[in-house]
Amino acid sequence: MEAIGIAxxxxxGAGQVQALKGVxxxxxxxxxxxxxxxxxxxxxxxxxxLGCIMAPTEGAVRIRGHSTExxxxxxxxxxxxxxxxxxxxxxxxxxxxxxxxNVRLALDVRGDRSQNxxxxxxxxxxxxxxxxxxxxxxxxxxxxxxxxxxxARAIVGKPGAILADEPTAALDSHNxxxxxxxxxxxxxxxxxxxxxxxxDPRTVPYAxxxxxxxxxxxxxxxxxxxxxxxxxxxxxxxSKKP
Length: 242
Description:
Blueprint: E1 2-10, E2 17-26, E3 32-36, H1 43-50, E4 58-63, E5 66-67, H2 73-83, E6 84-87, H3 99-108, H4 115-127, H5 143-155, E7 161-165, H6 173-186, E8 193-198, E9 209-214, E10 217-223, H7 224-240
Parallel strand pairs: 3-8, 3-9, 6-7, 7-8
Antiparallel strand pairs: 1-2, 1-4, 4-5, 9-10
Helix pairs in contact: 3-4, 3-5, 4-5, 5-6
């Protein structure tokens, strides 16, 4: 996945805000990248543009060689369906469906309602450690387990890019680390890249690369060792404040 000169203006008139300003960004297969920045920096807007949910005001997104430039809403929906998996902070599971049926929805929208779709959904749940929970409903699952179901749903269609919006924000420390471990394992596949929008410092050790965004612009990029050192210094400074 690649973003090329992405700009996005939100609102009208006096309330108009330039949320993104000429963003260039790439996500390679086999990597887990973090997109980090303060509130209002443009993280979620950029994720929405990358995920073909929101069209950029300027620039284009290229996904597995397919450029979004000039695409109709229907074409964008097809690109999103075929090549992108989403993971949200609030899980977005259907309460009346069990785990395997929640996962199978991702294949159902692709028109696959076969026994193979069921088998692939079971395999996806097994891949995130929930083979024993396929018949459980969301109310019967912990927050961490619900997020694992959401991850299984995101990967079952074998998309090239997984986009996660604050996937650990609603979880305690144990579950937060467990979810990041699952995402790091998923990112070991050279055919798939994982981009996580987060402000959670617990996620840093799991990343291959950290991309920093402020005021709608990419302001820096660090690889794993550099990022861990930077987060450690930041934590040390915070602990010294009265």
